[in-house]
UniProtKB/TrEMBL annotation:
It comes from the Bacteria. Pfam families: Epimerase (PF01370). This is NAD-dependent epimerase/dehydratase family protein. Coiled coil: none annotated.
Amino acid sequence: MKIFIAGATGAVGLPLVRALTSLGHQVTGMTRPGAGSDRLRELGVEMSFADAFDSEAVHRAIEAAAPDVVIDQLTRLPANPADIIKAMPDDTRLHREGGANLLAAAEKLGVGRYILQSRGFYLEAPAGELADETARLRYDAPGQIGESTRTIGAYEDRVLASRSLDGVVLRYGFFYGPGTWYRPAGAIADQARNGQSAIIGEGNAVWSFVHIDDAIAATVASLYAEPGVYNVVDDDPLPVSEWLPAFARSVDAPEPKRVSVEDALTAAGEEAVYYHTRLTGASNGRAKAKLGFAPRPLLWKGA
């Protein structure tokens, strides 16, 4: 296939480019100039430096690539996870405006399939249950998280409602593994070893992770699968109170400290509290059935 990837040098984009080219697909990667473009050049793929916010440039880039599939892997997240909330407005704008430009161009130019990176950790589900693919994103989440979920949810709806292309929404869990924050040499491990990890309140929020390589395998499979929504998460959804101490042990870090909700609200804000007390895990049954998804066990479970 001819495949156009927006965000081709990100945590998902770059390994996805490698996987697709190794399978013989013709890939065009859209990225910003810089070190990332050098990595794409090493892989021998076509490059596009179109600005996602420039609708005409995006249209020209997709028109020149003439792809069968457009994959939106655009993100604008910080190198330091401590800055995630501050960076979220830029990421939200990228999905709202850049995503709209990509989708409009794909529809106008007759692209057959459109694959969207979405979030598998902001889903609504009753307490104690896992969210399936019918779940909505949590539009009532506080602050910048709510802005993000409402934007991405509306984007999902537009992709799935398109009459001119097959829409696929991949709701990934939190990424771990090479090139991510959650790896032995990554930013979260550094924070843990520096004694900066903390569990807020009861730490009862349930997180769903996915290894980056398993996410790539599911994304490749989605090129051919039935359109619709897929939760791309592993089989080990765990509350923060369990996974964070296990992660700390796995990277030889001290036990995370405990912080009250009240103190966390003052020091870190309501979004941080939300991550530790309100998130819901997700189920992956549809991805297993339709994508042949077979995620590995969470690497630090039981550490």
